[in-house]
Amino acid sequence: MASPRGRRVVLGITGGIAAYKAPELVRQLRAAGAEVRAVLSQSAARFVAVGALTAVGAEVVDDEEMGMLHIDLARWADIVLIAPATAHLLARLAIGAADDLLTTLCLATEAPICLAPAMNRVMWEHPATRANHTQLLERGVLFVGPDEGPQACGENGPGRMSQPAEIAAFLEHLWGEEGRLRGVRAVVTAGPTYEALDPARGLTNRSSGKMGYAVAAALAEQGAQVLLVSGPTGLTAPPGVRRVLVTSAIEMREVVLAHRDGMRLFVGAAAVADYRPETVSAQKLKKQAGTLTITFVRNPDIVAEVASWTPRPFTVGFAAETEELERHARTKLEKKGLDLVIANPIGEPGAGFGEDHNRVTLIDKDRTVAWTAAPKTEIARQIVMEIIKRLPRDTHA
Ligand code: CTP
User: Fold this and answer.
1) For labeling, which of 66, 164, 297, 307 is most exposed (least CB within 10 Å)?
2) Is 206 found in the same domain as 97?
3) Rounded CA gap, 172 and 175, in Å?
4) Measuring CA to CA, which residue among 215, 213, 218 is closest to residue 235?
């Protein structure tokens, strides 16, 4: 599993000028030991010759022979890589079209799908393409590039297909050292929850979701199948991560529960509201003379509930504290029955809520280890390393 050696790549080629780079991409993948079966869209044939692909060792599969071929290829693939991926291809994948062999096999495969887009910069930046890109990211489709620079159309900007060497390196990264959680199903909660009071108002908190998103991204980098259950944030789903958006704690709990089967790892990074208004008014509440009293009831504690399951996933919680960090965080570890708590102080300038940096302390049943401040993306990777060290043997490859 340490490299593309023996890996099976279905290479989809769609009709853009960058298709001329496809033989070089095949050569690089073959040199790295991968098997390549190429599927060309109808218009791709205008930009690349079948002979050029077979000459460098790809088996070219003919669209005409369809039959059950899409299923065979869908099962055969360790990855479906589409390079170049045109704006039209992104649109077809986004709506789930199945109008040729390539799009049909994309619908039929359980293998990861990776796209290397190539198009004019205005097309890449068009709201329709933005929406398709976002939607595909949310479904866990991986993207390499596009690069910025001079384009075949004479313009300058984002939209150039990444170089074949870069695309091959991306796959090596995906399959290389960085695959220690391959096959592990992980669920991560992130962001705040919003507890409605009436149709216009509600209770929420200052969590930006950045830490939870960074953990989800770092888990995906290690090959885990990650479901990110996110409260309202302005963030986009990280590459390779499937995201479900929720609003309230009750909804968050429902989504987590629905994914209980096979869950090996749970990371509760969300700032879940501990309380919600007892009643949600169907109409906007009108102001009245005097004070307003609202009764709040307790929300379910999601991370504690997950930790109480049998069998249970390895369960990680977060603790944001304004004082006595270690004592409070250790109490959470014990009371909620967690395997690991990541504690961070609130109110330090430059770290914590909404910031890109954080300073955390790791607490498990035996130890307390304080780390120096670092970017959240870096901290997330280190947290994932700590999880890998502690994960019971049979739960990771
Ligand atoms: N958590 C959860 N469900 C809740 C509340 C919290 O899953 N209803 C999780 C968070 O995702 C986080 C950890 O529990 O992993 C935080 O613990 P919590 O006790 O809620 O922290 P605080 O709200 O800060 O607790 P307290 O007010 O007691 O300090």
Assistant:
1) 297
2) no
3) 5
4) 213
Q: What is the pLDDT of residue 32?
A: 84
Mutation test residue for ligand 1: of 228, 230, 272, 322, the one with most atoms within 8 Å of CB: 272
Alpha carbon distance, N-terminus to C-terminus of the chain: 10
Of these ranges, 70-84, 253-267, 376-390, the one predicted with the greatest mean pLDDT is: 253-267
Helix axis angle, 22-31 to 164-175, nearest 10°: 40
Q: Are residues 250 and 364 in the same domain?
A: yes
Shared domain for 204 and 336, answered yes or no, is yes
325: Cβ below 6 Å to ligand 1? no
CA of 320 to the centre of ligand 1 (A): 8
Band of residue 178 on the pLDDT scale cut at 50, 70, 90: low
Query: Hey, what are 344's tokens?
Result: 């961070």
Point out the domain boundary residue: 133, 148, 174: 174
CB distance 268 to ligand 1 below 6 Å: yes
Q: How far apart are CA 397 and CA 393, in angstroms?
A: 8
Give me the residues paired with residue 17 across strands. none
Secondary structure E strands in 286-351: 296-298, 314-321, 340-345
The model's pLDDT over 98-126, given as tens digits with 9 standing for 90+, comes to 999 999 999 999 888 999 999 998 999 99
Chain centroid to CA 231: how far?
A: 15
Q: How confident is the model at residue 394 (pLDDT cuts 50, 70, 90)?
A: low
Determine the structural domain holding residue 134 and report its residue range.
8-174
Q: How many Cβ atoms from other residues are within 10 Å of residue 91's Cβ?
A: 16
324 lines ligand 1 (CB under 6 A): no
Nearest CA to ligand 1 atom 15: 317
- Check if 341 has its Cβ closer than 6 Å to any atom of ligand 1: no
Using the atom order of ligand 1, give the atom closest to the CA of residue 249.
8
Radius of gyration of the CA atoms of the chain, in A: 24
* Helix or strand run (H / E) with residue 150: strand 147-150
Active site residue 153: yes
Kindly state the helix (H) or strand (E) to which residue 37 belongs, with its residue range. strand 35-40
CA atoms within 13 A on the CB side of 93: 33
Count of structural domains within the chain: 2
Q: Which of 66, 95, 128, 153 is catalytic?
A: 153
Is residue 116 within 8 Å of 84, Cβ to Cβ? yes
Closest by Cα among 183, 184, 163, 246 to 212: 246
